[in-house]
Amino acid sequence: MKADRLLSILLLLQTRGRVPAGELAARLEVSTRTVHRDIESLSAAGVPVYAERGRHGGIALLPGFRTDVTGMTTDEARALFILAAQGAHTALGLDEALGSALRKVMAALPAPHRPAAELAGSRILVDPDKWMSGPRPAVDLDELQTAVFTDRRLRIRYRHSGETRLRTYTVDPYGLVAKAGTWYLVADRRGRPQLFRADRVGSAALTDAPVRRREGVELAAVWQQLRRQVEDRPAEVRVTARIRRDRLDLAVRILGGALTGPPRTGDGAESPDVGSPGDGWAVIELAYPVLGAVRQLLQFGDSLEVLDPPAARRVMAEAAAALTAVYAANAPSA
User: Fold this and answer.
1) What does pLDDT average to over the chain?
2) Of 148, 169, 201, 329, which sits most exposed with the smallest number of CB within 10 A?
3) Distance between CA 124 and CA 86 in Å, rounded?
4) Backbone phi, then psi, for 298, in 5-degree steps?
5) CB under 8 Å to 35, separation ≥6 — which residues?
6) Phi, psi of 201 (to 5 degrees)
């Protein structure tokens, strides 16, 4: 709606100062001509907005002009107060600042919207952590935050997965991302994007050099690129397995990232041969980057059987035999 668009323009100008018309058009997904018409509408309504031509021109408000949030809808107010439940501000040391900000927003909200906002904060809780995720290592984001907000290069000592020693890197940060309760530093290293888990950063130190980000590249774009690299890794090994129906829900929760499709369940009349559900069993299809990763399925014990390929069955058999030997060799005497 035009009213929502006018409010969005007003808030963007208050936040950003001078903004090129083309950028406003891109953010609002309208044409530049529509933006100029909206600016005329704001001006006619008494908003002191003006446009400057030239290379460094754009659209801006007269200095000192502010507006309140009386244009906020009930749903927008509710969404803002649910944000307080997401917890990311805790790791960033912003608990007190967030509480203060929300009190100010509440005071500025139109009276009819305040009950809905208060109710949302007490009735909706967002917990970003997975079930049974276990204790998390302490994460110190102070130096990483400073580098991100002051646009400085960062020297970190970092431990990669599966390694014990720390490696030293100089990186150019784009920002911090919280995903499923885990914080990541998104940065360029030697001009190439890379992901660093914050809980594996042994130490971090600011350098005197300004950050060297690739021109025109923003955090969201780099994050999406890195996320695709993680999620779209080639799966060289396709595995078919059967699992007992009473363990299927647990398997789907644990193996979700490896599953290639929904489980196949039968009515109990089918044969438990490869690819067919049997009595009390369901068939699942999985994909792994390397053959050895199939050992993940050992955690289901005799409730899961790998059916195909034969090489994966051999890996499971060898792993099970090695495990049996470990316990047999260390069995307590009677």
Assistant:
1) 82
2) 329
3) 10
4) -60, -25
5) 9, 21, 24, 25, 28, 59
6) -85, 110
Assigned token pair, 174 = 């784009």
pLDDT band at 38 (very low <50, low <70, confident <90, very high): confident
Mean pLDDT across 152-173: 94
What's the Cα-to-Cα distance from 186 to each of 201, 203, 221, rounded to whole Å? 12, 16, 11
Q: Are strands 237-244 and 304-308 parallel, antiparallel or unpaired?
A: antiparallel
Number of folded domains in the chain? Answer: 4
Residue 68's contacts (CB-CB under 8 Å, 6 or more residues apart) are 108
E strand intervals along 258-319? 264-265, 281-288, 304-308
Burial class (CB in 10 A: 0-12, 13-18, 19+), 269: exposed
State the number of CA atoms in the 13 A half-sphere of 185 facing the CB.
Answer: 34
**Residues, the chain:** 334
Let me know if residue 181 belongs to a domain.
yes
- The pair phi, psi for residue 306, each rounded to 5°, is -75, 130
Residues 51 and 39: beta-carbon distance below 8 Å: yes
Residues 241 and 316 occupy one common structural domain: yes
Domain that holds residue 45: 2-61
